[in-house]
Protein: Lipopolysaccharide assembly protein A domain-containing protein
Organism: Ruegeria intermedia
Amino acid sequence: MMRYIRYGFLAALGIVLVSVSLANRQMVQLKLMPDALAELLGFNLSTNLPLFLVVLGGVVAGLVIGFLWEWLREHKHRRDASVKSTEVRKLEREVKKLKKKQNQGEDDVLALLDEAS
């Protein structure tokens, strides 16, 4: 059921994006700097692109910047989780060694039952 909802949503999104793209095909000039600043510095880069590419490119750039920002912001949480995971594995090995040491000299069946619990 969820798969069909997801496919329906993606199809609707695709139709909207194609419709917006077809409606905004006119060319616009994209400049690196305002004219006054470009005259002061002596150079300016500009290009002509269809309007839909400028709009969709801005959306994609915003998503990439947002994902990168979140990834950098969550770095300390990932680091802490990694340290805790390493500590848990170390403690599990220590518990296993202690159980083996405790069960030395006991019956094998009893030792297996003790390890399982």
